[in-house]
Amino acid sequence: MDSGLREETVADGVALAGVERESPLVMGESSLAIDRGDHYFAAARLMGTPTVLIAEADGCAVGAYCGAAHPVMLGGRHRTMLYIHHARILPEFQDHGIGKQFGEYLHPRYR
Q1: Burial of residue 71 (number of CB atoms within 10 Å: 0-12, 13-18, 19+)
Q2: pTM for the structure as a whole
Q3: Do residues 53 and 102 touch, judged by C-beta distance below 8 A?
């Protein structure tokens, strides 16, 4: 299986929305699927400058990860922290290290 991780393009919106729909949040016996419709990137418009990543396997989207830098006061010091706004990985690709790859890609950028 050929896989990879890259930053999104506008053309990826439909595929990323599909990953979110197919990767519901599971809480006990309940689950919640988010459907951003035709406007996947609209939720990120008010987040400053977000970075959206897409994980692919054999040319198909299998993961989505969106993070942005936010200024905070921590221990009396001004800091910049990475806030992950949404992250989804298709169930059949979970526990394959994709989430770790997402973090390893974004965290150094905001350190």
Answers
A1: exposed
A2: 0.84
A3: yes
